């Protein structure tokens, strides 16, 4: 029995005992028992209601606790998923950064390769050159070898220059440099005092290209070779040819002066 029920019973008992005898006579024993039973019934009802409320509250609390625990588990699972996603994002970022570096390196290598190919192509592509007043196309290596041989000649190394121009003419037969190469080969041979070979080189120029700007100089050089070889008769004939074919050239004027000296 609850404390409330015991209090009510005690209270009611005191009330019954303390009532005057005259008033107690008004109640019969059956009425008293009936009142006590009704009171006990009410007390039981109150206890049952209180127990039901407590049970309902306990169930509600248990349900709420279960919901809270379920929410906590969900939060923990979400936190785990978030951390996993963060890890994946970090990996993806690292992969992206590595891919970016790799792409940059590939692009750099591609650029280097392209530049190298372009450089090689430029080395192989013909270039426009102008020599002795004539324009033509020549391979870069062809131009380089001619320029190098001419530089050697101008430095006074006639022997080396003679070999270089001879090799050039064999390698680049029909080149736009051919006539100029013959002229400078003749000069190198003249410097070596190989007058016969020099005359051959100068004559080859005049024969193949009589309209070449250096053809008059070549004839004058032939005359000089003949003079050095003591072939004065041949020199006079060559100078005459020079004056006849190229009368207005500077070489012809120099030939006239040389011819006067020979007389």
Question: What is the topological layout?
Answer:
Layout: H1 3-18, H2 21-24, H3 29-124, E1 127-131, E2 134-138, H4 140-154, H5 158-171, H6 178-191, H7 195-208, H8 215-228, H9 232-245, H10 250-262
Antiparallel strand pairs: 1-2
Helix pairs in contact: 1-3, 4-5, 5-6, 6-7, 7-8, 8-9, 8-10, 9-10
Outline:
The chain is 81% helix and 4% strand.
Offer a few descriptive terms.
mainly alpha, Serine Threonine Protein Phosphatase 5, Tetratricopeptide repeat
Describe what you observe in this structure.
By secondary structure, the protein is mostly helical. It has helices at residues 3-18, 21-24, 29-124, 140-154, 158-171, 178-191, 195-208, 215-228, 232-245, 250-262, and strands spanning 127-131, 134-138. β1 (127-131) and β2 (134-138) form a beta hairpin. The relative contact order is 0.04. The mean pLDDT is 84.
């Amino acid at each position: 029995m609850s404390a409330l029920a015991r209090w009510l019973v005690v209270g009611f008992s005191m009330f019954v005992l303390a009532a005057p005898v005259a008033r107690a006579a008004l109640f019969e024993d059956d009425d008293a028992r009936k009142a006590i039973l009704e009171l006990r019934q009410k007390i039981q009802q109150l206890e049952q209601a209180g127990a039901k409320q407590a049970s309902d509250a306990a169930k509600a609390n248990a349900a709420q606790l279960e919901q809270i625990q379920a929410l906590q588990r969900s939060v923990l699972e979400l936190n785990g998923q978030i951390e996993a996603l963060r890890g994946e994002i970090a990996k993806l970022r690292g992969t992206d950064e590595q891919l970016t570096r790799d792409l940059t390196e590939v692009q750099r290598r591609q650029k280097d390769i392209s530049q190298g190919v372009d450089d090689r192509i430029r080395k192989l592509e013909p270039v426009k050159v102008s020599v002795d007043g004539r324009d033509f196309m020549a391979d870069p290596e062809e131009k380089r070898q001619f320029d190098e041989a001419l530089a050697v000649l101008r430095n006074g190394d006639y022997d080396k220059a003679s070999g270089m121009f001879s090799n050039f003419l064999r390698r680049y037969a029909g080149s736009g440099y051919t006539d100029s190469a013959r002229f400078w080969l003749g000069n190198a041979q003249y410097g070596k005092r190989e007058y016969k070979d020099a005359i051959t080189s100068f004559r080859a120029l005049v024969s193949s290209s009589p309209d070449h700007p250096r053809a008059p100089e070549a004839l004058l050089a032939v005359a000089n070779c003949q003079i050095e070889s003591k072939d004065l008769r041949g020199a006079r004939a060559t100078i005459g040819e020079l004056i006849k074919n190229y009368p207005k050239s500077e070489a012809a004027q120099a030939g006239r002066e040389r011819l006067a000296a020979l007389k």
